[in-house]
Amino acid sequence: MRIKKYGPLGNEVIVIEDTRLTMNNRIYRRRSIINQIMLKISLFALLFGLFWLFWIVCILLIKGSPALSYTLFTKITPPPGQCGGLINAIVGSILIVGFGTFIGTPIGILAGTYLAEYGQRGWLVTIIRFLNDLLLSAPSIIIGLFTYSVYVVQVKHYSGWAGSIALSMLVIPVVVRTTDNILSLVPNNLREAAFALGCPKWRMIIVICYRAAKKGIITGILLSLARISGETAPLLFTALSNQFMSFNMNAPMANLPVIIYQYASSPFEDWNNLAWAGAVLITLLVLIINITVRNLFCNKI
To answer: Where are the alpha helices (DSSP H) in the chain?
Structure first.
C-alpha cells in the first residue's frame, strides 16, 4: 500500500511506502509462521521433559511403594535374607544433613551479606562471586574428594562430621547466591531512613535488611537442604556407612544415599526393595521441601 504526499510547492509528488504490518503483509506472515514454529518447538520440549519426569516418578512409586511399611521406620538395615528397615540410615541422614545445614547456613548468610552490603564495588567482590559460581556448579564428587583429602586423611577414619563438612560446602554457595540476590532487592530508601535516624550499619542490616529479606533467605536454605538430601558421592568419601544404629558423629554412620547405592547394586531382592523404599523417601522429602518453598515463600517475596 502506498501513500501520496505533495511537497510545499505543490508540484512535487513524494511516494512513501507504508510498512505497517497488516494481515496481507509479507513481513507479518513470515513472522507469524516463525512464531508458530517456535511455539510448537517450545511446547514439544516441555512435553518431552515432563514425559521423562513422570516416567521416573511413576517407576519409582510402582517399585518403591510396596516396600513401604512400618518396619522401615522401626528396624535397622538387615543382613541378606532377613526382614529389616532403614531406621539407622534415616537417623544418620537426619544428623549428617542437619549438621551440614547448620554449619553451612551461617557462613553462606554472612558471605552473602558482605557481597550485598559491604562489597558493592571492588575487584575482591567480583572474584568472590566468580568463585562462588564455580563452587555452585562443581560436581559433588569433587567436594567429597576434597573433604577426604583435607579431613578424613588427617584424622585417619571416616565419620559423620566429615560427611556434614562435605555437605556444608554444597550448602554455602546456594545460600550465598540467594542471600546476595535477595538483599540486593531491598530498597535503598529503607537503608537511608535507618541511617538518617542514626542507626549503625550493622544494626540496620540485622533489623531492616534481614527482616525484609527473611523469606528469600529461608527459601535459599530450604532449597540447599533439598539439594544435599540425596547427595551420595560426598558421603562415600567421608561418612561411608555401617549396619547399626549410631548417634556417634565421630564414627562411620549409616545414611540413606549410600545405603540406596549399596543395596540397589546388590544381588539380593530384599535389599533391592529397601533401596527402592529409600529412594521413595528421599523423593518425597525433596518434593515436600520444594512445595513448601513455593507455596509459603516464593509467592510472597
So the answer is: 26-64, 87-113, 123-136, 140-147, 153-155, 160-184, 188-196, 201-204, 210-228, 233-237, 256-264, 269-296
For residues 97 and 229, give the distance between their C-alpha atoms in angstroms, rounded to a whole number: 7
- CA dist 226 to 101, 234, 294, Å? 10, 15, 13
**CA–CA dist 194, 206 (Å, integer):** 11
Handedness of CA 103, 170, 160, 214 (dihedral sign): positive
Whole-angstrom Cα Rg for the chain = 28
pLDDT in tens, the chain (301 residues): 544 555 555 555 545 455 554 555 778 888 889 999 999 999 999 999 999 989 998 998 898 888 888 888 888 888 887 888 899 999 999 999 999 999 999 999 999 999 998 877 778 888 888 999 888 888 899 999 999 999 999 999 999 999 999 999 999 999 999 999 999 899 989 888 988 888 899 899 999 999 989 888 988 898 898 889 889 999 999 998 888 888 999 999 999 999 999 898 888 888 998 999 999 999 888 888 878 777 765 555 4
> Residue 182 has which C-alpha cell?
535477595
Closest listed residue to residue 174, CA positions, set 213, 100, 225: 225
To 10 degrees, the CA torsion angle through 149, 152, 158, 160?
A: -100
**Total-model pTM:** 0.82
Distance CA 265, CA 227 (A): 23
